[in-house]
Structures are given as C-alpha cells and as structure tokens.
Amino acid sequence: RRVHGDSFVLDFSQFLGMKFVVLVDGSPAAEAAFDRASALSKEGDELHICHSCQFPDPVLDSVAARVGGMVVMDTKAYAEARHQVEEHGRKICERFMQACQARNLKCQSHVIAHGHAREDACKFASDQKADLIVVGTRGLGSVHRFFLGSFSNYIVNHAPCDVVVARAEHNSGSS
C-alpha cells in the first residue's frame, strides 16, 4: 500500500504472474533454459519464448556486392534471405510453444531477426517489462569465450531484470 495525497494506492503487482523471457536458439543450452523456466513458472506466469538472431553477414554477402565502401544489394534476394532466417526462428519457437501447451503454460513466441541478437534480446525483455530472463550457456572454455564472446555473459551484464543462466549438459573437452 502506498499513500498518495489524501488517498492510498494498492499495489497488486505481487498478485500478478511473472513475465519470463526465455531466449532460445534450438541448441541443448536453449532446451536447458526452457526446462528451467518451465520449472520456475507457476500458474498465472507468462513465458515469452524469444528467438533473437543477428541477420548474418554471410547471408548479406550472398545477396550484396561490395563496391568500395558501399554495399549494393538486390532487395528481393535480401528480403527472401531475411524471410528464411525468420522462418527458421519461427520453427525453433514452434517446438517450444508445443512444449508449453503440453505443460499447460501460458506462452507467446517472438522472432527478432534484425540488429544484434544480444542487444535486441535485452531490449525485448525491457519492452516486455520482463521479471526474469532465462538463457542457456554452452559452457565454452576461456579460449573459445575470448574469441567468440559469450551471449549469456552479455545478457547477465546488460539485462533490465534478473537473469537465470541454465547450463546445458556438455562434454568435458572444452578449452
């Protein structure tokens, strides 16, 4: 209860369900994230299954010619390539949506296929006013992490809310 002037305002947010953003990419780490989110959720919670992918440079290279400092692109080929990336994301989300339905979880799916995946995932969570982000990690060794970066590390350090990192089963041969 908060006092506002001569009246008071009741805060019912504690009675509303939580919003989970579950970041998925079809990997075993994403499966672990989904499993963790579904285990943490309770009746009334919302799971937002989100596939955020960076529209890859190899795709751009296949539909664009680089001339000096400019990029000349066939817009129809670009649109088709982007559609394929988005369709792939929808198929990934559909698998998780089916699992939500099987577990009687309230869920929505979202595919973000523009910009940078890490930044877009954090912005999406902020836009959704998420209470928790659940993301998987592949458990890359320090050498791989140095060269490739870590999606989950970025999310932990830039998220607008709490983050749970679910570790996927992995072999012990990581460097």
3D architecture notes:
With 175 residues, the chain is an alpha/beta fold. The protein is built from 6 helices and 9 strands, in the order βββαβαββαβαβααβ. It has helices at residues 28-40, 57-63, 75-102, 117-127, 142-148, 151-158; strands at 2-4, 7-9, 19-23, 46-52, 64-67, 70-73, 106-112, 132-137, 162-167. The strands form 3 sheets. The chain has a 5-stranded parallel sheet, sandwiched between helices. The protein has a two-stranded antiparallel ribbon with strand order 1-2. A two-stranded antiparallel sheet has the order 5-6. The longest helix has 28 residues, at 75-102. 26% of the residues are buried.
Summarize the structure.
By secondary structure, this protein is of the alpha/beta class. The chain has 6 helices and 9 strands, in the order βββαβαββαβαβααβ.
Spatial extent as radius of gyration = 19 Å
Q: N- to C-terminal separation?
A: 52 Å
Average pLDDT rating: 80
Q: What is the makeup of the main sheet?
A: 5 strands, parallel
List keywords for this structure.
175 residues; alpha/beta; 5-stranded parallel β-sheet; 26% strand
Secondary structure: elements and pairs:
Blueprint: E1 2-4, E2 7-9, E3 19-23, H1 28-40, E4 46-52, H2 57-63, E5 64-67, E6 70-73, H3 75-102, E7 106-112, H4 117-127, E8 132-137, H5 142-148, H6 151-158, E9 162-167
Parallel strand pairs: 3-4, 3-8, 4-7, 8-9
Antiparallel strand pairs: 1-2, 5-6
Helix pairs in contact: 4-6
